[in-house]
Amino acid sequence: MGVSTSSPEKGISVVTVDFPPVNALPVRGWFELAGAVRAAGRDADVRCVVLAAEGRGFNAGVDIKEIQAQGGPALAGANEGCAEAFAAVYECEVPVVAEVHGFCLGGGIGLVGNADAIVASDDATFGLPELDRGALGAATHLARLVPQHLMRALYYTSRTATAAELSTHGSVWRVVPRGELRAAALELAREIAAKDGRLIRLAKAAINGIDPVDVRRSYRFEQGFTFEASLSGVGDRIRDGFGKDGAQMGDHD
């Protein structure tokens, strides 16, 4: 359990997240993920990183129970950890391909929204249920996946979109059956990794440099409203009711 790194092929590093039962990451998990992605990007032999996950889904966001149990310190830690993990993906020195299956919720949107490309299984769903969890954030990253008005509707309603729907907006490179997901992700990573290592790193830096949105600053701005919601009491009230009507993503058993 945790975050692991493997090298299935020359030039490709696979960073895998595994926090059962639903990959709702505790504070330490976000920092572990950030460290693994940054380390892979610094490896001179790596030309592409694949971000993957084991289990039922790609990512269910933060560990709500950890925040419920520890309060403010855990909320602050989760905010900082998410910011670092999202930034690590965006700032990785080489392109990052997100390999998404099942649910991709909350913090998962922050990861894939900052990735360079997304390959998804046909059972993948994407969404930000933050308003149902007493939090705010990652609209910055959802806006990189869908048009502005759709982003707002998804955010306000906490609804999800399928991989096929995201594909129509051009944000998902390819949608494949679940059993073909790893092969499809590696196929894209392999094509990227075939490029000159120095040139692909320059290309990543150049593309980030022309991005119209400073994703780190934009996301940290959003997080300020999560703290405001917590300080007002509304965030804690909604979080305290999370999971009481049945099992929900991000609620550890």
Automatic annotation (TrEMBL):
Statement: the UniProt record of this protein carries the keyword Lyase: yes
CDD domains linked to this entry: crotonase-like (cd06558)
Matching Gene3D superfamilies: 2-enoyl-CoA Hydratase, Chain A, domain 1
Keywords recorded for this protein, A-Z: Lipid metabolism, Lyase
Family: Belongs to the enoyl-CoA hydratase/isomerase family.
Protein name per its UniProtKB record: Enoyl-CoA hydratase family protein
Source organism (scientific name): Streptomyces bluensis
